[in-house]
Design a protein that fits this description.
Helix content: 40-55%
Strand order of the largest sheet: 1-2-3-4-5-6-7-8
Bound molecules: glyceraldehyde-3-phosphate, zinc ion
Shape: globular
Largest sheet: 8 strands, parallel, barrel
């Protein structure tokens, strides 16, 4: 299959009360694991790559990273029976514009380092371009912190204001709106709750499908309740990294003389496939291809 625009999946999920996984990949093996799991679950999946993963793939050049990942994802989709969308996660304006030209079927602009007015203006500009090219557009209002191993600075957590969310979607026409409900990026344990009362208020004002970032650190109970209340795209990264790395570590621990990357990376992939399958089932998107 060719890469698919995920907008119709998200609208269906929104209407029927399930969610689509936005699964992050940093390399070829993680991409393969997501695609394989989608096939095994007969599920639509969004494969996504973040700004920092682009720098990693492109040896410090994010545009090279976009080119590598677009090529790999197109080939993976062509060889797969599952519907695959390719999404830019936490992109800059430059990356989003380039990704649209390179065949990504969905993009997110991360306006966190911009003022509210700039976030609206840039999101609107990219949305207009994306819609001309039949590409899905996500942007964010509020802030989900990215402490990246450091201690969390509470000031970095800015919960989404319901009136701001309404104003943002009216001014930008984005297809998916990422909101902050108390999650934090990069957590290895599922300890956080979500502000469901806030989600209810946002939902009462905003019809646009909503996105949860930082889901790895959120309890399953909170995610499930939030999906029922109208979250339609759930982003998952750290949980996948953890599974992949534990698989590799196990392989290396078991055989001290193992040096063939094909062997230990395969064990990483296998461990990740299981977690992606479990998340697809949990989100309710198994069998929805
Ligand atoms: O954009 C990606 C996500 O928000 C994933 O966050 O690493 O906490 O699962 P996570
Ligand atoms: Zn995120």
């Amino acid at each position: 299959m060719t890469l698919v625009n995920p907008r119709s999946w998200i609208l269906k999920a929104h209407k029927e009360g399930f969610a689509i996984g936005g699964f992050n990949a940093n390399n070829f093996e993680q991409l393969q694991a997501i695609v394989k799991a989608a096939e095994l679950e007969n599920a639509p999946v969004i494969v996504q790559i973040s700004h920092r993963a682009l720098l990693y793939l492109g040896n410090g050049n994010e545009i090279t990273g976009l080119q590598y990942f677009a090529d790999m994802a197109k080939r993976a989709a062509a060889n797969s029976t599952a519907p695959i969308a390719l999404h830019l996660d936490h992109g800059t304006e430059l990356e989003a514009t380039q990704a649209i030209g390179l065949g990504f079927t969905s993009v997110m602009f991360d306006g966190e380092s911009h003022t509210r007015e700039e976030n609206i203006a840039i999101s609107k500009k990219i949305t207009d371009l994306a819609h001309k090219m039949d590409i899905c557009m996500e942007a964010e209002i509020g802030a989900v912190p990215k402490p990246d191993g450091a201690e969390l600075d509470e000031a970095d957590l800015v919960l989404t204001d319901p009136d701001d969310a309404l104003d943002f979607v009216e001014k930008t026409s984005v297809d998916m709106l990422a909101i902050a409900l108390g999650s934090v990026h990069g957590m290895q344990a599922k300890e956080n709750d979500l502000d469901l009362a806030r989600l209810k208020e946002i939902r009462a004002k905003v019809e646009t499908p909503l996105v949860l970032h930082g889901s790895s650190g959120v309890t399953n109970e909170a995610i499930q309740a939030a999906i029922k209340m109208g979250l339609s795209k759930i982003n998952i990264a750290t949980q996948l990294n953890k599974a992949f790395t534990l698989g590799v570590r196990k392989a290396l621990d078991e055989k001290q003389n193992l040096v063939d990357p094909r062997k230990y990376l395969t064990q990483g992939m296998e461990a990740q496939i299981e977690v992606v399958r479990e998340r697809i089932q949990f989100l309710g998107s198994s069998g929805k291809a």
